[in-house]
Every structure is written in C-alpha cells, then in structure tokens.
Amino acid sequence: MKRIPFTDGWQFREKVNPFAEIGGPGAPYEPVVIPHDASIGRPRDPRGEPAAAYFSGGAYQYRASFPTPADASQVVFEFEGVYRDAMVYINGDFAGQRPNGYAAFTVDAGPLLRPAGETNEILVEARAHRDSRWYTGAGIYRPVWLLTGSDVHIPSGGLRVSTPDVDALGAIVEVAVTVQNASSRVSTVDVEVTVESPSGDRIAGGIARVTTRPGARAIARQRLYVAEPALWSETAPALHTARVRLVGEGEREGDSIDEADAVFGIRRLQLDPVNGLRVNGEVVKLRGACVHHDNGLLGAATFAGAEERRVRLLKNAGFNAIRSSHNPLSSAMLDACDRLGMFVMDETFDVWTSAKSDFDYSLHFPEWWQRDIESMVTKDVNHPSVILYSIGNEIPETGSPVGGMLGRELAERVRELDPTRFVTNAVNGMLAVIDDVKRMAAERAGSADAGATAEEGAGINTLMAGPGDFMNLIGASPLVTEKTAESFGVLDVAGMNYLDARYESDRELFPNRVIVGTETFPTRIDHNWALVRENAHVIGDFTWTGWDYLGEVGIGRAQYLDAEHPAPSIAAPYPWIAAWCGDLDITGHRRPASYYREIVFGLRAEPYIAVVRPRDDDAVLYAGPWTWSDSISSWSWAGHEGELVTVEVYSDADEVELLLGGLSLGRAPAGPDHRFRAEFAVEYRPGELTAQAWRAGAKAETSTVRSAAGPARLSVTVEQSERSELAFLAVELVDASGTVVTDRAPAVTVDVDGSLALQAFGSADPMPTRPLGSTTQHLFDGRALAIVRTGNGDGTVTVTAPDYEPVTVRL
C-alpha cells in the first residue's frame, strides 16, 4: 500500500467531557505536529509522583481532517505508538483501540469514510495516569502513517525478509510476501521480487504467482540465492534492499497493483555455551546500554533524527548493543541501529499479570499480550540489528510455576512468529522470590506479621537500593535457583538483572545455560566485564543506564547526609526530573562513568581526569548502587582556591602520575587490580592538571584539563544532517581557548525565526528550576542544548545571555 506520513494538520487539546460543552464553546484545540508529547510541556506538581518526574497525568484529544481518496478502495491509518489506552474514531464512530502505549497498530478507516472527495475527521484519544515506574509522556508521540491502496494489496507488515542459510560462498534470502484480497472475487497476481546490494545493484530476483480467495490472504515465499554477499555486522553494517511488485494478469509491463520494499541485512547468528554468541562466525561480547524510550529534553516525542543521534553517541561511547527498557524500541531507532551497527535486545513488557503501579498494563495484559508480541515482531523482523527478544523485565511471576508456564507461552509465541532470533527474559532473582524475602525479613525482625515488615509504599527499587552484595546474596541462593528454574528453562538466553553472582556458579549447575547481564549496576562494570571476558557462556553486560532518562528521579544521585537529612532515600524531591544514572546525560553529553567504562572495555588508552565537586559543608556522602561519584572533568572551581579537592584518574595503565602546572603531585597504582582508578587529594589552584600513564616503567598516554581563564563568550555548535528534521545546537560558555567555563550558570535565551521552530531547550541539570518549555534556561556545567525543528525552509537561531555577546546561526 502507498504509505505517506500523516504528521501535519493535527490539532490537540486536553480531553473535555462532552456534556460540559453543551450550550457553549468547548476547550479550544491548538495546532501541533506529530510526533507530539502531550505531557512534556505541562507544569510539574511538587506533590506528584517522583517516578513520573512530578509530571501529572491526563487525558488528551487529537483531531485531523483528510479527504476520501478517489483512487483507493483501502484506507488504513498506522500508528507507531500512542500513550496510552488509545481510542480512535472516524467521523465520530469508533474505529479501533490499543491499550498498550508502545505497540504499533493499524486502524481500517475504509468502512467509516464518506464518499470520495468529501472530508473526514479522525479523532484520537489518549490518557496516562499512574501507570508506570518512569516518565512515559502521553499522546501521539510516535509517527502516524496513511496507507492507501487497491483491494488486492500488500498489507502493513506484509513483507518479511530472512536469511536462514549464510556461509562464506553465499546466502539464501527468503522473501515472504503477504497478498491480501479484500475484493469479492478470486484474484491472481504475480509477485515480483528484486534484491539489491548495498550499492543498489540487482543481485537476485524471482517471480511467484499467487491466487487468493475473496476476503483472504496468501503468502508468496521465495528463496533467492545471493553469491558472496556483503554481511551485516557491528563494524560493517551492510544493508540490502528487497523490492516487491504485485502485477495483475494482463497488466502492461511496468504497471503494478501494489509495491513495497524493505531494508535488511544478511548475517548469521549462532549461540552456544562453549562459544557464546557468534555473528558471522565471530565471537561477540555485548557491550550493552539499557535505554528508556524518552529522548531527554524532547520528552517521549520520537523524532528520527534524535533517535539516530542517540544511537550514534552511544556507539561513540563504546557501546555495541542496546536493550530497550522496558518496551519495544521505535522503528526510527531500529533503522539507526541497522545503519550504524548496533545490536538490539527488544523488550516487550515491564509487567505481566502482577501490577507494579496503580493502573499499569497488567490490567490489559491477559487479553492483549499476544497481539502486542505480534506487533513487536512485525516491526522488528526485517531489522538485522535485532538479535534478541526479551519477553519481560523483573516479572514477579517468574518465581512461580504459573509464571513459568506463562513465560513459556510468551516465548513460544515469539518463536512461532520469528524463529530466527533468540529469546530472553530479564529476571531479577530477588523479585522472583520477593514474598519469601518479605517473610524472612519479618522473621528476622521478630515480627509475627510478615506483611507489616515492608512499607506499604515501597517499590521494587526501594527494596533494591541496598548494597548490591545483598541482592547477589539472595539471587545466588538455592531458593532462587529452584524457583526460577522453569522460567530460565524456557529461554535461549538467561537474562539476569543484578545477578552477577550466578554467572560462574550456573556454569556448573546448568552447563547448557547461556547468560546475559540484562541489567547491572554501573559501579560494578569492572567486576562484571571481567566475568563476561572470562566466561564464554556469559555473552554481555547491559548497564542501567546508557542514556539518562526522565522519571525515577535521583536514583543515581550522590546523597550528602547531615543532621537535616540523616538517612538516604531512593527518590529525590522536587524539582528533580532525571534519574541521573546514565553514562550519557539527557542532552547526550558523556559523564565520567562513560569514560571509565570505555577504559574497562579496553577501548580507550588515555587516562581520564574527573574532579569531585567541592562542597562547603561536612556532609557525609552516601552512594547508592546506581551512583557514580559526584564528579565532572573540570579544573575550574572559582571560590575554592586553597581547598583540598578529590581528583579521580581512570586508567588501565600500571600507574598514573598527576601533575599540576607541570609539577608532579605523585604517582598511584591503577589498572584492573586497582579497579582502573587512582585517587589524589589536591589543593586547588587554577592552572593545568595532567594525568600521565605509566606502563612497564615507561611514560605512556596523557590527558589534561585546564582552568578556564580570561573573558568568556557564548559558543554555539550546530549538529545537523540531511537525514534529520531536527538540528541540535550545543550552547556552551567558553574562554578564548575553547575551555568550557563550568563554574558559571548564566540564564541563556534562544530565539528562532523564519520557518524554524524551537522544539526543546534545556540542560542536563537533573533538578532544573525552569519549565522545560521555557525559551530561557540556565547553563549547567557550562552547557545547554537547543533542539530546532527545521521544517522546509531557512531561518536563524539567536542565543543571548546578559553580559555576553549574542550568537546567531543560520539553518
């Protein structure tokens, strides 16, 4: 079917009770462009939910008009994602629904359309309210497509390409095309398939004749041989294209009833406990990043350019794999992973039948899970980046026989739909036996009432906020071994959340078990990565998280305890907005943990300098399991001259030497035996701080940070590509040499003109004082990010701040 974007011409408002509109005008609609996050621009409520970043829930309506096409008998709307409980109406009549906020779905508009040439209205309602453990956003946050075609056509998702047989000489490319006949007569068509190489050359093709009954579907399956194909991998992500034409009997050459194409990759996947994961015969260890679906300052709105930027920056930071958490990735992000060579573990659900939030998806799971799995597989099947499907995250039911039975049903359904990938489940051992843990805690506390030992409001992260060793102690226990045996047994890969204590013991207990760390503490990457390297059956590690996210506020923050705040807490108070546990912050800037991880992975030889922010009090630091040190790579600390500051140097070298102004401050051991870090107490004075690596007694790599000096100025660096509808403008305060002035936070204003629109503006500050929708924001650590929607024309962006010269750039 012809597939065109349906993203312009929409209007939006908060949902209004229709009875309230009797006798007067209703709430006005305002124009919006899809994708659109209905929540991100709303005021936050200090009394709201920390999990949702203090954003309030709501119900929303979107409407748009479209003419009935005169040349198409089939009209279908395709929604890539509406959060959530979407209800769709055509000309006032119910047309379809989808409870899951992350599942792509289609709505057949044909039966409800007015005569050809007349105007129709589509109305979409969505709602979000206390239904998740993170910031979800709301509304039509992913793209919408309008599909039109004839009665005989290829339906949405009707072209699937797989490569079941690949070796050094050639590959079998299997192209399965679904032909749908919506007419009242038998139809016969020829299905013409052409396979093109990455350079666009025709390298294979074939024709199959297909006859379909009225109102039925048929699949035309062709096995095509491609000699010496370019294989897809993380280092050489070669992409092919399959093009399909439906040609009817008696059609002139060149004419077609319908067309479709799909981009795919040719690659071979193998999995076993002796070699681990192999791609095209080569062993691969997954250097993984868990990511949520939100895009920081953009909220939940899914723009292709922003998704590609995330993938590119994550790969530049040393990752080669992404785990979607805890819902299927967008098509745009999968496209980017295909192009850039990033492996994907796509995940279905955060809940099955056991609720984690008041009104979460457990209310709909029993009725909808099969259709949701089908939606995910249909979306993923042609993407070579997808190598693993995850059927859930930290599902409490995994510790029970009924949960094992349900997991088997999910896993087998995935395999029925796509037998070419592997199936996992992100199991948290402690959560799987949480009722037993509560009972044991009650007994330990001497309480006769086990239910009274857990706070009524305690969530799973509260229970996990203690030392990681405690979680491992529970997870490695015989109790977890027994209770998770069936749930792990239904999987191809045992996904383990915070269960690194099982990696080596399970090699003996379950010799055929292949393991992946589906979620791990960032502070344990040196320990975990050693286990991954040394154990063939452990295929990778996915840190929580690769990219920081909105909601679950402050779980990774450094907490300073004093008389006013004597005890740590899992959630941070308002105005916190971010989790603050990502290697990259919500603007995409790399934090110190990211460089540490790159060194642990063996991808960076140069040492890295991080300086702990100096404080003016005697508070005691509490670092939770997701907390990195409260540090940045800066040597600009005006007002702290003469004070001792802590300098961390990350390195895989034997030793590192620290020099200030060329004078040595001493050496300290580093490398794997010292957790890849050395620490120095340094009396702060402005200048140049250098880390010198020493290997086998000889000087090796160096890195340097400098104090910002002299007059400062605003700097704007534009990141824009032809593929993206967005331009990203990095706003920095720098000195004459380009050193970022991290110890000033002026208020900066962004103005746009022409055809441009300011989509978002803000900083990585995890506790901002200004609304995200404001055109004026304070810099954080000397930086901010403006995101501009470029449209179809040109315009200018002007950045101003008091006491600094304005900067204007043209896009």
Automatic annotation (TrEMBL):
Record-linked InterPro entries: Beta-gal/glucu_dom_sf, DUF4982, Galactose-bd-like_sf, GH, GH2_Domain-Containing, Glyco_hydro2_dom5, Glyco_hydro_2, Glyco_hydro_2_cat
Record carries keyword Aminoacyl-tRNA synthetase: no
Keywords annotated in UniProt: Glycosidase, Hydrolase
Name this polypeptide is given: DUF4982 domain-containing protein
Domain Glycoside hydrolase family: 720-801
Glycoside hydrolase family 2 catalytic domain span: 277-436
Domain annotation DUF4982: ranges: 642-699
Taxon lineage: Bacteria, Bacillati, Actinomycetota, Actinomycetes, Micrococcales
